[in-house]
Automatic annotation (TrEMBL):
Coiled coil, from the record: none
All copies of domain BFD-like [2Fe-2S]-binding, residue ranges: 421-470, 484-533
Stated name of the protein: Nitrite reductase large subunit NirB
SUPFAM superfamilies named among the record's database cross-references: FAD/NAD(P)-binding domain, Nitrite and sulphite reductase 4Fe-4S domain-like, Nitrite/Sulfite reductase N-terminal domain-like
Pathway as given in its UniProt record: Nitrogen metabolism; nitrate reduction (assimilation)
Pfam families reported for this sequence: Fer2_BFD, NIR_SIR, NIR_SIR_ferr, Pyr_redox_2, Rubredoxin_C
Cofactor: [4Fe-4S] cluster; FAD; [2Fe-2S] cluster; siroheme
InterPro entries: BFD-like_2Fe2S-bd_dom, BFD-like_2Fe2S-bd_dom_sf, FAD/NAD-bd_sf, FAD/NAD-binding_dom, FAD/NAD-linked_Rdtase_dimer_sf, NasD-like, NiRdtase/SiRdtase_haem-b_fer, Nit/Sulf_reduc_fer-like_dom_sf
Amino acid sequence: MTVKRKKLILIGNGMAGVRAIEHLLKLAPEAYEITIVGTEPYPNYNRIMLSSVLAGGASLDEIIINDLEWYSSFNITLYTGHTVTSIDTAARTVNTDKGVTAAYDELILATGSNPFMLPIPGTEKEGVIAFRDIKDTQIMQDVSQKYSKALVIGGGLLGLEAARGLLHLGMDVSVVHIHEYIMERQLDEAASRMLRGELEAQGMKFLLKKQSEAILGKKRVKGLLFADGEMAEADLIVMAVGIKPNVMLARSCGIEVNRGIVVNDYMETSLPGIYAVGECAEHRGIAYGLVAPLYEQGAVLAKRLAGAPTEGYAGSVTSTKLKVSGVDVFSAGQYIEQPGTKALRFQDETEGIYKKLVIQEDKLIGAVLFGDTNDGAQLFSMIKKGENIKGREKELLLGIPADALASPKGNRLEGMPDDEIICGCNGVTKGTIAEAITAGGCTSVGQIKACTKASASCGGCKPLVEGLLQLYAGEAAVTVKEGICGCTMLGRDEIVAEIKRMKLTTVKEVMHVLSWSNEEGCPKCRPSLNYYLGMLWPEEYVDENESRYTNERYHANIQKDGTYSVVPRIYGGVTSPAELIKIAEVAVKYDVPLVKFTGGQRLDLLGVKKEDLPKMWEELDMPSGHAYGKTLRTVKTCVGSTFCRFGTQDALGMGIRLEKAFERLNAPGKVKLAVSGCPRNCAEATIKDFGVVAIDGGWELHVGGNGGVHVRATDLLCVVKTDDEVLEWASAFLQYYREQAGWNERTAQWIERVGLDSIKQALESPEERAALVERIQKTLSLTTDPWKQIVNTPELRKNFEAISLPETV
């Protein structure tokens, strides 16, 4: 006899509620007909990763936790873009704003929280937003294309991540905070000041001890007035001052509400058959905002709904392990000293490391780590256990030795409690991973990821997952060799070696001879093979346009509305009145909606229709700036000794020479150069792929910098005396990078992988440098300007006549 399924409705398609459903499907897959209603028009996504989307480090697709196919595979009815407006608790139905009425036997409220907006005049103005969902992220991205100055109110984690994203989008960003130091809820003052120093080095500004009084402007925001009478200009104000549980729906149907929806240890509300979980819930007077407690709540709720035994949710001791704009920080427990406590500190500002332990009655009750957070999980375990650490205080402060918490086998992971969170992004515990290995039969990291979602988001926990795999699977653990993509098990070096050995000459030939599992390839391998073939055989290989991304096929950056941007090359950022007039006239003629100076000292003409591109290129009669490909982008300069009283060398001349030398250079990743005319480094040469800094009597050559999502300062390659030597070393370095790096690997990642010493060793021989210079010059001699080639070739020009958007590879 078929048992009739009960009807379960989840209101809220966020991380906490859907995690409860995932647990329920494992415990009782046939017990419920499940309906999920979500206000946003997307499937379940990782809200923690929004800052990565804002900064350009991830796409929306990459932060989706459960795609539409997942809902379908479990026969879940999903209503996206619907907001539940009322609950009829007598009839047991819910109603949405789009006319849907659905019946329930059991109901879960996972309505999350709303951003807190300061109650000050002007919050209704255009350009004042929160940072809470994908829509907010898209608004910030749009605003950054038109405006320059942003203020972020709130110096907590969310505010700093919003500020970092806006900084990456090219805006001038200041963080406004009412306290005297940032992230005061997660860090003590010493760690906070170190973090502030790191963020200021990235370009972030801070206005501390500032109380916001009013938002200025008529229709659109123009600035922010403070209580002390000072004012800061702004085209955009992002409020990140906190969240408040979304209880409106619960309150409207008579459910008990305090700060959040009041629940007991089984996540039950005051009305039978209705539960609450996540940021909207208040348990024992606490509404949690961190993902780990919310996932713990979801696990308890799932067991309750499945009829499985559970002890109930007893609350959470929280810890925070974060990466704030590339800087690792950790805090747990009571990390601010109180009467009756004592603190131990270690601070190394040279290495950027700070550690503090707070101890009471010989027990660790709190910890703060900055820069080096490797011991965070072990310290947190001690805090939760209330373990006596007498006699081991300094040992713990300076780094837990391998056997401090180890089992007789000496494995630190073995001594870790089962409820320890391994994957903070997805709230996966050690016990869950252990069960997936011992009971679920997982024998590889990939299988564990698919089963538990551990390491499926940022990937920072992968070493711990690998360690647990070895601990529990032993010899059965499978180290799955990862190729450049899912089409092959071959890595970059193996592919390049085989292309050389067998003299393979086309993408199709490589995939056929090397036994690709997908004979057509994929968007990851086809562009990489196209690059490797062109790099190895510059004279013989004919570039496969169909193996390039849309931007590179059309030699312009496609924008989200389907238009393109045109960035002509302006050598070293130096132009002339005549050139400016020509650009302006073309912009007027083709009704370009936005002209913007880029961070690389060029002009970007945005909003161009595809069919207008060749005509604009023709009338501009300027080389392509290659702002769209994995090529040399720009060579940024300061005025150097030409005008500046501090300049020691001709930065303008050197920048123009370098840009003209490498302007059409293809590379594994985009390449940015800069030349600063003195050590004051106004051109920011020390965050470029190749940076040149003038000193008395010569030049410092810096490599491997990155000013993007993951900021990295350069390493000093060498010091040279003459301009010719700068060009020689630049040529040799760039060619060695072209030949050794993997596709889509920037110089920063490459140098961290292979080490600076190996690069110095490869370039130290004048004979080897000369050979590299010869090879790069041969490659460059075979390149042509793509804009001129298209303008002068009718067959190529026809590709721009279509109005529909091209498909991407």
